[in-house]
Write a structure and sequence with these properties.
With 427 residues, this protein is of the alpha+beta class. It has three domains: 3-111, Alpha-Beta Plaits, CATH 3.30.70.1050; 150-248, Chitinase A, domain 3; 264-426, Trigger factor, domain 2 (Orthogonal Bundle), CATH 1.10.3120.10. It is 47% helix and 20% strand. It is built from 13 helices and eleven strands. The protein has helices spanning 25-37, 51-57, 59-82, 134-144, 202-206, 254-259, 265-299, 306-326, 331-340, 342-365, 372-386, 390-398, 401-422, and strands spanning 3-9, 12-19, 86-98, 102-111, 124-125, 150-153, 166-175, 185-192, 214-220, 234-248, 425-426. The strands form three sheets. Strands 6, 7, 8, 9 and 10 form a five-stranded antiparallel beta sheet that branches. A hairpin with a 3-residue loop joins strand 3 and strand 4 (102-111).
């Protein structure tokens, strides 16, 4: 064996190769043939120059290609023999080559860690109780009735502004230096109180004021506000409330319920209660699963490949950048955001990699398998939740192998959690 294997840490190996005698004749011949096929030499058609001429003319390059091929082959054979599950690409170090005589080099590679999960049978968790309130159903009903709603003015002048009201008001922002920027002014502006459209504290500051009232609201802009010139800035907003409006929803009747695709008000209520219960159940399970993962990650320490964390961090950045740009952020603002929150993204990526490796290990331990029956069942559940045709949903997930693979991976995780919870104490 012309190599030795050393462990750098739990997921990094260093393979040290040393060949005191070196015969690259086979690799050189292969490199010459490869080079010949793409070479244009005077007096010969492309790819038809004699091998000896090609070798003589491109000697140094061919020898370099042959050495590279030799190194790659030796590493591949060693990785295969040692049954190493590699991550990413190797880093070559300390390459020493004496032409035609000897070569030594080191290859540092990352591998998937060997994971041992500590006993978790004593872990206990509490799953949130699922309840559908009258208020929950009312919100769904109002969403359906949104196209039939009327915006009316609150006639009673003694009524103070409350969450859910719509304020019609004038406002002007005054900075500490007394300046009044044009981008901090508004006339007859319509704002739903509680919607969170303005910076934190603004809408809360308007609560209770009545039609015709004027009020100064002193606020400090968030440290991560997208306009850098306003970050941490203290601004007084001069507000004048012109009107208070509210939405008036009609009462749902059987005729309206039929417009929405239901048989009656009773059918509407029954099916939407069931959908709400299903949604709340999923949310409760997601919260429970997250708590289980956090506990498992905390109790099981192991080295993880930096490559996996970097790849996951890149995925998170790309996804977040897309969302930020949809909110009006430009490239410079996105870059500034990432600079500010880089540590948080790295921490999140690290957790996701660790929890993913733990779940994968447990799935293998539990011998979890997924089938077409699991796929079809999940499609039916998704279609029912979304109120869509089963075949339409199935066609979407079957149209792209990556989309289907992601769904199958999610199903595998769900089945892993189900087995895991049987071995824990869940109240």
């Amino acid at each position: 064996m012309s190599y030795t294997v050393k462990s750098v840490n739990g997921c990094t190996k260093k393979l040290e190769f040393n060949f005191a005698t070196l015969d690259l004749s086979r690799e050189i011949k292969a490199a010459v043939v490869k080079k010949q096929s793409s070479t244009n030499m005077k007096g010969f058609r492309k790819g038809k120059a004699p091998l000896t001429m090609v070798e003589q003319f491109y000697g140094p390059q061919i020898e370099s290609d042959a050495l590279n091929q030799f190194v790659q082959t030796q590493l591949f054979e060693a990785v295969t023999k040692e049954k190493l599950k590699t991550v990413g690409y190797p880093a070559f170090e300390n390459v020493k080559y004496e032409s035609g005589k000897s070569v030594s080099f080191e290859a540092v590679i990352e591998v998937f860690p060997e994971i041992k999960i500590s006993d978790y049978s004593s872990f206990s968790f509490k799953k949130e109780k699922v309840e559908v309130s009258a208020e929950d159903l009312a919100k769904v009903t109002n969403n359906y009735l949104g196209s039939k709603v009327e915006m009316t003015e609150v006639a009673d002048s003694s009524v103070g502004l409350a969450k859910g009201h719509f304020a019609v008001f004038n406002f002007e922002g005054v900075k500490e230096d007394g300046s009044r920027p044009e981008n901090m002014k508004g006339s007859e502006y319509l704002l739903e109180i509680g919607s969170g459209q303005f910076i934190p504290g603004f809408e809360d500051g308007m609560l209770g004021i009545k039609k015709g009232d004027k009020k100064n609201i002193l606020l400090t802009f968030p440290a991560d506000y997208h306009a850098t010139e306003l970050q941490n800035a203290k601004v007084t907003f001069e507000v004048e409330l012109l009107e208070i409006k509210e939405k008036k929803y009609p009462a749902l009747n059987d005729e309206m319920a039929k417009e929405f695709g239901y048989e009656s008000v009773a059918d509407f209520n029954e099916k939407n209660k069931a959908n709400l219960a299903s949604q709340k159940e999923r949310q409760a399970l997601e919260k429970l699963h997250q708590e289980i993962l956090e506990k498992l990650v905390k109790e099981n320490k192991f080295d993880i490949p930096a490559t996996l964390v970097q790849n996951q961090e890149k995925y998170l950045q790309d996804d977040l950048a897309k969302n930020l740009k949809s909110q009006g952020f430009n490239d410079a603002m996105v870059a500034e955001y990432f600079k500010k929150w880089a540590t948080d993204l790295t921490t999140k990526a690290d957790f996701q990699v660790r929890s993913g490796l733990i779940l994968d290990h447990l799935a293998q331990e539990f011998k979890i398998e997924t089938s077409d029956a699991d796929f079809n069942k999940k499609i039916e559940e998704s279609a029912k939740t979304a109120g869509m045709d089963v075949e339409t949903v199935k066609k979407y997930y079957s149209s792209n192998s990556q989309i289907k693979n992601n769904l199958m991976y999610a199903i595998r995780e769900e089945k892993t959690f189900e087995e895991l919870k049987k071995k824990m104490k869940i109240a």
